[in-house]
Design goal:
Elements lengths: L3 H12 L3 E5 L25 E4 L7 E9 L11 H22 L4 E8 L6 H18 L2 H23 L1
Parallel strand pairs: 3-4
Antiparallel strand pairs: 1-2, 2-3
C-alpha cells in the first residue's frame, strides 16, 4: 500500500511521453528451458509499471517501485545512499535477467526513501522523464520541480497512511 500512490504518479508522468503504459502487467509465463532464469521465476510475477519509449523509441522497460524507511532498526548500520544502492541491486537481480531474456525489454528499479531521497537509477529515470516532458513544454526546471513536488507529496501520503 505504501508504494501504490508512487507507482500511479510515475505511470501518469510516463503517459505524457511513453507508449503502452501499463500498471502491474503480468510477465510471460516461464516454461521449459526458461526455468533456468534467475530472479522472479514464478508465473504471476509482475513489476509495477511497463512502458515503451523512455530510454529509446521502441524499447519496453519494466519498473518496480519500492519505498524504504532508512531509520528502521535493521538499517541502522547502513547509510541511506548505501541502502538505496543495495536495494537496487536486489531488485535488479530479481527482475533484470527475466526482463532481458524472456520479455525482451529492460528493467529499472525506482527506489525512494520515506525522507524523499531517490536511488541512483530513480534519479536517472526522473531526469530522462523530465527531459522528454520538457521537450513538449520547453521548461525543464519547472517540469522537474513539478515531478519532485508530486513525488514528495506521494511519499508523505504513504508515510501518513503507515502511521
Amino acid at each position: 500500500m505504501r508504494h501504490n500512490n508512487l507507482r500511479d504518479v510515475n505511470a501518469e508522468f510516463q503517459k505524457e511521453v511513453c507508449h503502452d503504459v501499463k500498471v502491474e502487467p503480468m510477465l510471460i509465463p516461464i516454461e521449459g528451458e526458461n526455468t533456468q532464469i534467475e530472479g522472479a521465476k514464478e508465473n504471476g510475477a509482475h513489476p509495477d509499471i511497463l512502458s515503451t519509449g523512455l530510454w529509446s523509441p521502441f524499447e519496453r522497460t519494466f519498473y518496480d517501485v519500492q519505498v524504504i524507511h532508512p531509520n528502521s532498526p535493521s538499517y541502522l548500520d547502513t547509510t541511506p545512499k548505501q541502502l538505496l544502492v543495495q536495494k537496487e541491486k536486489i531488485k535488479t537481480r530479481k527482475y533484470n535477467v527475466r526482463a532481458l531474456q524472456v520479455e525482451k525489454g529492460t528493467f529499472t528499479p525506482l527506489l525512494y526513501t520515506t525522507f524523499g531521497g531517490w536511488g541512483p537509477q530513480a534519479t536517472a529515470y526522473h531526469r530522462r522523464l523530465a527531459d522528454k516532458i520538457s521537450k513538449k513544454t520547453k521548461e525543464y526546471a519547472s517540469v522537474m520541480n513539478h515531478m519532485r513536488t508530486r513525488i514528495r507529496f506521494s511519499i508523505m501520503r504513504s508515510v501518513l497512511v503507515a502511521l
